[in-house]
Design brief:
The chain has a five-stranded antiparallel sheet with strand order 6-3-5-4-7, sandwiched between helices. It has a three-stranded antiparallel sheet with strand order 2-1-8, covered by helices on one side. The protein is 39% helix and 17% strand. The radius of gyration is 21 Å and the shape is elongated. The chain folds into two domains: 86 residues, no CATH class; 129 residues, Alpha-Beta Plaits (2-Layer Sandwich), CATH 3.30.70.1910. It is α+β, with helices and mostly antiparallel strands. Bound molecules: zinc ion (ZN).
Length: 247
C-alpha cells in the first residue's frame, strides 16, 4: 500500500476482533494524517520507554541540527539520510553496538528546518558538537542522559507536533533492529466489512460470530469512528516494522 500524502479521514472503517468482539479502528498509518500521527507518536513513545528500560545502561538523548549552510527544508531532507549514515557509522566505529531510535522533527523557530532527536545506548566519546560536525550536522548539538519516562515524554512531545511536510516516502523514524521491543500481544483475527456489505449486515455477521448484541456493537462502532485514539487499539504494526534500519 502506498503512503498517502494527502490526509484522509481516519479511521477509514471499524473492524471487530473475532474472539472478543472488541472494536478496532482501521487507519491509514501515515504521519501526514492528524489522527495517525497521534497514534504513531503514542506507539513510538511506548517503544522508546520500553527500550530505555531494557538496554541495561544509561540512555542518551541527542539533538542534531542542520548546519547554517543549509538554507531550505528541501535541501535538508535531501541530505539528511547521508548525514544520518555518517553519524551512525562513526558511532558504531567508536562504540561497537549502538542501539537507537531517531526521529526527524521540524524546528519551529527555524522555519521548521528538520533536525534529529536520537535516543541511544552510548554516550559521546569526544566533544559531542565535534562528532555532529564531523558527520555533516551543525554545531548546535546537545546531549543528555535520560530516564524511561523522559524518553516517552520526548517522543510524544516531538513526534506528535504538526507542521510535518517531508517529501513523500521520507522516513521520519529510524530504529536499530536490536532496540529492545515490547513483546507482541497475541493476535486475534479481525472481522472487516466487505465492499458489498451494509453496516447492519456487517454488524449482524459480527454478532453471529462473537455472540455480542447488535445494539452494543453499533454503539462501539459509533464511538470508535468518532474517537479512534481512545476507543481502538493499534493495529498497524507493519508500519512500525517498515521503519527499521537493516542492522
Ligand atoms: Zn490516518
Amino acid at each position: 500500500m502506498s503512503e498517502p500524502n494527502v490526509p484522509r479521514k481516519c479511521p477509514v472503517d471499524v473492524a471487530f476482533k473475532s474472539q472478543s468482539g472488541t472494536a478496532v479502528a482501521l487507519v491509514c498509518g501515515s504521519w501526514n494524517c492528524p489522527t495517525c500521527s497521534k497514534l504513531l507518536a503514542r506507539e513510538w513513545a511506548r517503544i522508546a520507554k520500553y527500550g530505555v528500560d531494557h538496554i541495561g545502561e544509561t540512555a542518551w538523548f541527542w539533538t542534531l541540527t542542520m548546519s547554517r549552510k543549509v538554507k531550505t527544508r528541501e535541501k535538508a531532507f535531501e541530505i539528511m539520510p547521508t548525514l544520518w549514515n555518517s553519524l551512525r557509522m562513526a558511532v558504531q566505529r567508536a562504540s561497537g553496538l549502538w542501539l537507537y531510535i531517531a526521529f526527524v522533527e521540524g524546528q519551529p523557530h527555524r522555519a521548521y528546518m528538520p533536525h534529529f532527536h536520537v535516543l541511544g545506548s552510548v554516550p559521546s566519546w569526544r566533544d559531542f558538537a565535534e562528532i555532529a560536525v564531523a558527520a555533516g550536522f551543525g554545531y548546535q548539538a546537545k546531549e543528555k542522559p535520560i530516564t524511561s519516562d523522559g524518553a516517552a515524554g520526548y517522543v510524544s512531545k516531538y513526534a506528535s507536533k504538526q507542521g510535518w511536510d517531508a517529501p513523500r516516502g521520507f522516513r521520519r523514524v529510524r530504529a536499530s533492529r536490536k532496540w529492545p521491543r515490547p513483546p507482541d500481544e497475541p493476535k486475534d483475527k479481525y472481522l472487516v466489512r466487505s465492499n458489498s456489505e451494509t453496516l447492519y449486515g456487517f454488524l449482524e455477521r459480527v454478532a453471529n460470530t462473537t455472540h455480542r448484541d447488535v445494539g452494543e456493537l453499533y454503539e462501539d462502532y459509533r464511538l470508535t469512528i468518532g474517537d479512534p485514539i481512545d476507543a481502538a487499539e493499534w493495529m498497524q504494526t507493519n508500519k512500525i516494522d517498515n521503519q527499521l534500519d537493516e542492522l
